[in-house]
Amino acid sequence: NTPSAQNFLTSFLPVATMATQISKKRKFCADGVFKAELNEMLMRELAEDGYSGVEVRVTPTRTEIIILATRTQNVLGEKGRRIRELTALVQKRFNFDENAVELYAEKVANRGLSAIAQCESLRYKLLGGLAVRRACYGVVRFIIENGAKGCEVVVSGKLRAQRAKAMKFADGFMIHSGHPAREYVDKAIRHVLLRQGVIGIKVKIMRDHDPTGKFGPKKPLPDAINIMEAKDEPVLAVPQSICKIKKAPEMAPPQQQQAPPQAM
Q1: What is the average per-residue pLDDT within 161-184?
Q2: Which of 35, 51, 162, 175 stands the most exposed, by the fewest C-beta atoms within 10 Å?
């Protein structure tokens, strides 16, 4: 890293956004660079502990970083040692003040619906020497059994022979275009460094609609149709006919005028 590159990165740190007034464009760039670099660091550090993403919450007093993982105990470490080490690392790298950043570990609600967790699981299966087809079918079955609406696993590279190829394993229902694809489909990409070369893994999981918003999006799919139950109609014993022709309004009978009384 050259000094100019380091100065450029330091200008894109969240501390700068808090200390001085900067333009909206620079602020969004700074937040994006911070999140991307933090995600990359945690992904490399916590890959074996089921790392499934990170969430950053900025409050007026401090910045809270929530690490999503399947094995939170490993993330915390013995007596919280590892999480304190990670906090110190983030604090020094991004120039945070003392006690201005806090790291928390949160367990993933359902790891079968987390694309990152399943991608890492498949990666370690392949590193362990398991056959590609067997590993992929195992992951696909696990995802579907955990309540996903559909899933797709793509493995590409030198799988068996010298010639590289791609294998696709899919099950269930999957959407690829439109705004619902952003809300419903969770994606993850990882690289496996094997002896014969690098193998790429792509996992896509389509979650089901969940009104609570815990295991899936709250908003239903735009083309989802609910057929309502028919109303119970009374059964008539005798056929009836209803006249729907409007009757003309009845005219009031003309009032008879009384003759004025004659003078005596």
Answers
A1: 92
A2: 162
Taking each helix axis from N to C terminus, what angle separates 24-45 and 81-93, rounded to the nearest 10 degrees?
A: 140
And the tokens for 147?
């309540």
**Residue 131's closest CA among 168, 160, 164?**
160
28-82 per-position pLDDT tens digit: 999 999 999 999 998 888 888 888 889 999 888 889 999 988 888 888 888 889 9
Q: Is residue 152 within 8 Å of 220, Cβ to Cβ?
A: no
Query: 184: pLDDT confidence band, cut at 50, 70 and 90?
Result: very high
Query: How much is the pTM?
Result: 0.70
3-state percent helix, strand, coil for the chain, nearest multiple of 5:
35, 20, 40
CA nearest to 36, candidates 22, 54, 18, 59: 54
Strands, E assignment, 5-159: 51-58, 63-69, 101-107, 150-157
Residue in 75, 76, 15 with CA at minimum distance from that of residue 45? 75
Please, which residues bridge with residue 190 across strands? 201
Tell me, letter by letter, the H, E, C secondary structure of 22-61. Answer: CCHHHHHHHHHHHHHHHHHHHHHHCHHHCEEEEEEEECCC
The chain-wide mean pLDDT, for the chain, equals: 85
